[in-house]
Amino acid sequence: MSGDCIFCKIANAQIPSKKIYEDEEVIAFHDIHPNAPVHFLIVPKLHIESLISCESQHQALLGKLLLLAPKLAKEQGLAGFRTMINTGHDGGQEVFHIHLHVFGGSAKLPKT
Ligand code: 5GP
Ligand code: ZN
Prior knowledge:
about 110 residues, HIT family, subunit A, 5 strands, five-stranded antiparallel sheet
């Protein structure tokens, strides 16, 4: 838990979210400003700032986030989806608690 971190607060239920999944290590919820018809975030409860901060001890947790993406996407009715991890200011990261974006629900997502 990091004092001022919005995703730590969501993980601790201190602020509400449209939650779609939770276990002891991970929470997933809809993005508050969706960029696709379905846009949710998969977030470890452990406060890790970004992908740059990850080390080998986080390998299983990172794999878990990725493996949850197709499971949760299917539950959201998505036949396909796009994943994204913005990393660092230069990578467009705004919330400095690592998270995996999952986008879908358009007939076909545009190329980036
Ligand atoms: P980043 O740019 O860091 O990869 O993405 C942060 C994402 O978190 C943005 O898409 C933003 O809309 C979302 N977000 C920021 N604050 C909140 C919040 O309080 N609740 C939810 N559900 N999403 C948030
Ligand atoms: Zn945090």
